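pinging the channel bc i need a second pair of eyes. not urgent but kinda urgent?? the chain im working w is below, pasted from the shared doc
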Amino acid sequence: MKSIRAAFYSVAFLAFAGGAQAADQIVVQPERADWTGAYIGAFIGAGGIVNNIELPGAGPGNFNGIGGEGFLGGIFIGYNYQATPSIVIGVEGEIGFSNLESELNIPPVFALDASPQWTAALSGRLGWLPTPQTMIYLIGGYTYTDYDVDITLVAAAPLTASFSQNYHGFHIGTGIETHVSDRVTARVEYRYTHFGGQDWGTAGFLNVEPSSHTGRVALAYNFHDSGLGGIAGFGGSADWTGFYAGLTVGAGAIVNNIKLPGAGPGNFDGIGGEGILGGVLVGYDHQFGTSLVVGLQAEANVTNLSTTLNIPPFLALDAQPDWTASFSGRLGWLARPETMLYAIAGYTHADYDVDITLLGAPFNFSQDYGGVHLGAGIETWVADNLTARVEYRYAHFGGESWGTGGFLNVEPSSHTGTASVVWRFGAGN
């Protein structure tokens, strides 16, 4: 099931990468822009993690899962080889640190913190150049992480214990990278990582499989003269002003922070889930001068960022936001006339459903959520009137009691990465 899910994510992100090259708009284009060479860079980002819990020693049940969220950052080195005027292949190594934490606090009795502390990855990249300055790419490879669990028991005196586990896994993702100067590139990337199961010294009774969904922004310095410094991607300056509509596919994680105000100050951050999403978007951009774009956007998505709990034949639970709608503002900077780095923020509404089957009897609960989102993305022209974008978005929703009169409070947060194709009505050069 995990391999099928990972393959689906990869295919979804491949879907937008096969557009036609922008021959109508690119008026100055050398036979071969030079991406070949070594580079070094740094990244920062954020994301969510979901731990799928199985108990092979106790039966066929599983819980997907225990969730966490936080930040990450690190450094990378790599080498690109431009195989054709439009195709780039490369290898990349990185090391990073993260605090994608799952937390359980029951003061003053108990505190637990679990998170991957640092990661190392070796990746291959396959890129397509819609213009000489900008590359749309797929990335995949091997990931290693050191996972730590810290527990504190508070009685007459604090008692602490720490556990550590090494994990091996794979990652797949997509991104867009563009030159902001002759030697410096900027990129935005979404990455899904899945690790193999580990029993944490329980002799097979317990099996824990983490997965993470992360977004990152990065800058890289290239140790070669790309020859792109004076190349104009469009005649004069590109015109981003106008209406647009598009299609979006993506994946992500959701983390539900559980609080029990009626029972004390404890909280569990949290119950996690993961899945895919897809939808439509419409918007309007206005370009000010040669480098600033502001816009408004509305979007609707169907999602299955599911949390599942199965204890056959007694209990089956599935909780997920079935659909979301959002209204956003965007602020963009044109690194090149045809490529925009942007920030996005606004309001999100979600319809959240919980389906429970208990001893064969079905139950359904539903709750509307309102919240805020913010994120970052990169968008580039790939053909006349057609752009592609990659975006990472974090959304946080207000707490809801689910009809418990305030005893229970559930605050969801989501981390999603999306790829979109956008048709622009009348914009261009």
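so DSSP finds one helix and 18 strands in the chain. and Residues 2-14 form the longest helix (13 residues). — does that match what u expected or am i reading it wrong
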